[in-house]
Amino acid sequence: MSLPCGIRNYNYAQDMAIVRTRTQWGLLLALIAVVFTAPLYFGNYWLGVFNLIGITLIAAVGLNILVGYCGQLSIGHAGFIAVGAYTSAVLTNRFEMPFLVGFLAAGLVSGLIGIVFGLPSVRVKGFYLAITTVAAQFIIIWVINHWGLTGGFTGISVPYASIGGFVFRSKTSQFFLIAGVAVLTIFLAKNLARTRVGRAFIAIRDNDLAAQVMGVNLLYYKLLAFFIGCFFAGIAGSLLAHCYYLNLNGEMFSFTDSILYIGMIIIGGLGTSLGPIMGVVLIRLLQQVLLPIYLVPFLESSFKNLPSGFATGVTPMLFGLVIVLFLILEPRGLAHRWALFKSAYRLWPFSY
Amino acid sequence: MKSKRFIITVIVCLALILTLLPVFGACGGENETVKTLKIGITTPTTGPAAEKGRPMGDANLDAIKYINEELGGVNGYQIEVVWIDSAYDAAQAVTNVNRFMDENCLLFGTSSSKEMTDVKQIANQAAFPGLVCFNAPSLHRPPQHIYGLTPDYGDDWTAFTTYYMENIWEGAGKPKMALMLLNNSTGYGARDAARAAADDLGIEILWDGEIGKAFEHTATTTSETETLTRIRAMDPDVIYISSTPAPTSVIIKNAFELGIYPGVTIGCGHASFTKALVDLAGADIVEGVYGVFPTVSWGDNVPGMAKLMEYAQREHPNDVGNMDYITAWAQSLVIAEVLRLALDNAGYDAIAAGDAVAWKVIEEQGIQKLDGYDVGGLQSPVTYNEGDNRLGNSLRIFQVQDGVITAITDWIEAPLVKYEEFSWFGQ
């Protein structure tokens, strides 16, 4: 970890600490204060948007472990989220099990399904592996749409999340639940990357043959990456079902969403702990708020002579343009841009 | 080093200010607000159903403009619309409805059954009344807080099949019908009706393998040749399509190319039977295709048509001739009527807050008081019958004749089917 000038690590604990300096502690506390007091100054609409961001973040962190750290390209993440959502929904609706059982089962079942679809990763990689994960997306949604237990195309209704008699009915309570799980997920992912497992993932990503020669068990670690990535997708799906949709159908987990998840982690920065956060916040705010709520009314009120539907039609184009510009101008993602900014800030006013 | 400390101090101060914002907010005085009737409308103006969503969004807003500017609003109160594109996306639709509730809208409207399917549980849990243009049985059976302005997709199938049996089928025995359905509530309304009533109507359904499994397609399909080839092998007499215009046009074009049509009869549900279908498939190819629709045709001699056509010509000339424009215009008129009834029966103060109490008033004193509102003759009169959340329950059979969608029957009333009483419903 790069540290400011004059800060040194004198023992192993200091070297392993995530938060090291007083500045970092101050910023972290300020961030926590802002995040956990957000329900005080935001209405239900904004809390709903934050909840969606939080759930997306959990799934994106999982995908980042799989793609960013371990280098296993998966374009079926929405399918794995669907597995989690439906596992939780079926257990709580059809079998009347508690939410917590559904929540954990969602992660486990999704992780196990991830292992099944991850098996080809032992023999194929890159675009070939991507195609197998695309197949996962379509097979999973097909099964969901044709299985009586999941409600088929009609869908299945889902109860609110509840723990020990407390029902997460309000957007505020849902926000705290989702924020708590998201923080825990980020913390786990951050630490995972620094463990033996994380280093094995990175070794496989950088050169799997070299990693194998060094004694890294490719089968074990690749499937472990699939399990962890899909486990996070599963718990995100559970939260999506119990705190956001309350009613599921297969169309809510589209192939477009799977591509969007890949876009989020690429724009944020693959293989970084900060990347998914930045990517998810940017994409979700653009998609859910900035373009439809602010840009369209602005265009329509400013340019009265625009043809019908023009302003609305512009938004998908702008959305695509933003993604393309990011990929061209900052292919290493927002996290890299942030790292450059921090370096410049530390060295300021010197340019070297 | 000093500047660094300064920046950190600024960041911490900003965090503190944000934390204390609610306290500052609580100290402020109340703003004087104009009394309006706020409603929420979401339409799929972009995305895979944009060919329907765009004209419907145009019509919703044009009708509200007409009500506000020419009729002086509702009982003197202007209607304020919070309109947001849903892009036919579930997450966006939920975000939109959260916004409507947060902005204290009195009710909300959606164009498509798919959008309403995505948000129905959120709305039902909050008892936030919603009015959907294109309706499916799964949205209102069992009835809760979602109301359909038109008959549902199941009613389409029943009306078309009844017409087919009485006026088109001339063979002996049971005719064979293949169902080509969009893989969402639009398609599955027809499937449910077919399962419930095919035997009673004397028609045999050609299922795709197991009973209850129709021939499905997606909203983005580009070819249905494979499915149609399998259907042709089953020797159908009639193909019924319940989908949106783009996929329906693909199916009919493929059927034309394979020589299936003309030959078999093709009937369409109302989600696709609009000018967009004729434009997309080509008038010569869809000639003779039957369809069902819950409104009058463009230019029909009914009281509400002149103003609708005037606004379409002036505000959105591209929408002229599009029957989806009529449906959504009628939706806005019904919304205005609901607001008028609520104002008459409960007064402005009862709904001013736009909260859960106001939503209850809107539902009980507005929607459930609808009794024979004629909607300018644009659709069948709108009435609430207890236990039936279909506010309009009549439709007509149309046929493409010389490239024009032409009505060939008078209004046919669709009976209520209590789907929830069938064990397979929702499974």
Description:
The complex is a heterodimer of chains A (352) and B (427). With 352 residues, chain A is an all-alpha fold. Chain A has a single domain (38-299, 312-347), classed as ABC transporter involved in vitamin B12 uptake, BtuC (Orthogonal Bundle). Chain A contains 14 helices and 4 strands. Chain A starts with 11 loop residues before the first helix and ends in a 5-residue tail after the last helix. The model of chain A has no long low-confidence stretch (mean pLDDT 88). Chain B has 427 residues and is α/β, with parallel strands linked by helices. In chain B, the strands form 2 sheets. In chain B, strands 6, 7, 8, 9, 10, 11, 12, 13 and 14 form a 9-stranded mixed β-sheet that branches. A 5-stranded parallel β-sheet of chain B has the order 2-1-3-4-5, with helices on both faces. In chain B, helix 2 (50-70) packs across helix 12 and helix 3 (90-102) crosses helix 4 (113-126). The longest helix of chain B is centred in the first third of the chain and has 26 residues, at 2-27. Chain B is globular, with a radius of gyration of 24 Å. Mean pLDDT of chain B is 88; it is low at 22-31. At the A-B interface, helix 2, helix 3, helix 12 and helix 13 of A face helix 1, helix 2, helix 3, helix 4 and helix 7 of B.
Short précis:
Chain A contains 14 helices and four strands.
Blueprint (SSEs and pairs):
The complex is a heterodimer of chains A (352) and B (427).
Chain A (H helix, E strand, L loop, with lengths): L11 H5 L5 H20 L2 H26 L7 H17 L5 H20 L8 H20 L9 E2 L4 E2 L2 E2 L3 H22 L3 H11 L1 H6 L4 H28 L1 E2 L6 H14 L6 H28 L7 H20 L3 H15 L5
Helix pairs in contact in A: 3-7, 3-8, 3-10, 3-11, 3-12, 4-5, 4-6, 4-10, 5-10, 8-10, 11-12, 11-14, 12-13
Chain B lengths: L1 H26 L8 E8 L6 H21 L7 E8 L4 H13 L5 E3 L2 H14 L3 E3 L4 H4 L5 E3 L4 H16 L7 E7 L2 H17 L2 E3 L8 E3 L7 H9 L4 E5 L2 H13 L7 E4 L6 H7 L1 H4 L3 E4 L11 H11 L7 H24 L1 H4 L4 H11 L27 E8 L2 E4 L4 E2 L14
Parallel strand pairs in B: 1-2, 1-3, 3-4, 4-5, 6-7, 6-8, 6-9, 9-10, 10-11
Antiparallel strand pairs in B: 11-12, 12-13, 12-14
